[in-house]
Structures are given as C-alpha cells and as structure tokens.
Amino acid sequence: LSLVLSLGATKDMGKMLGGDEEKDPDAAKKEEERQEALRQEEEERKAKYAKMEAEREIMRQGIRDKYGIKKKEEKEAEAQATLEANAEGSLTRPKKAIPPGCGDEEEEEGASILDTVIKYLPGPLQDMFKK
Questions:
Q1: For residues 32 and 39, what is the distance between their CA atoms, to the nearest angstrom?
Q2: Residues 81 and 88: beta-carbon distance below 8 Å
Q3: What interactions and quaternary structure are annotated (predicted)?
Q4: CA nearest 130: which of 120, 115, 116?
C-alpha cells in the first residue's frame, strides 16, 4: 500500500516541478468549448433575470396606476419642468414676491406706523404727539 502511494506521489511531484506532462491533443478545443458553454449559460441567466424583472416592472406599474403613485424619475422630471416653466422668459433667477406695503415709500410707511401708534395712546399723550 505504501509503495502505491509513493509512486503516485512522485509522479505528481514531477509534474509540479515542470517534468513531463501528459499532453492532451484536444485540450485547446475542449477549453474553447468550455468557454463557449460558460458564455451561453451567462447569456441564458441574464435573459432569465431580464424577463423576471420585466414581469416585476409590469406588476409595479399596475400598482402605481392603481394608487396614483409616480416613479422617482417622473417626480424629478415634473419638478424640473415646473422650474423651467417658472423661469421661462427670465434671464436671471426667479424674482421673489414683494409683499404689499414694502418698497420705496419708506417715509409714508414710517408716518403710517407713527399714526397707528398714536391712535392707540391715551388722549393726553395723543395731544402731545400731534403738536
């Protein structure tokens, strides 16, 4: 038993050290067939998963339609469209709305605030400010 093991071990050691290897005349052809089989399996796997994902997307779209949900891409596209519509015709950023009463008329505004304050003061104080 030990003789058989040692003979097999020395034969393998010789191959590892660069000794004579058994040359298979069809090795290149077999390797090419193996690579082709791997490519084919990969293509089949990709096709299978693409089909499964397409079926899932159909189901997802049905749910979105049923509940009125929009895709993230659709939401972003709508937001971009609204920004573009708001900025249409403008070369700069959109102007902020100025509330009424704010603006260039500071003197009149100051007088109106003073009049409002005076109106709420007691009678004798009102007389003092009116003079």
A1: 11
A2: no
A3: Binds to the SNARE core complex containing SNAP25, VAMP2 and STX1A.
A4: 115
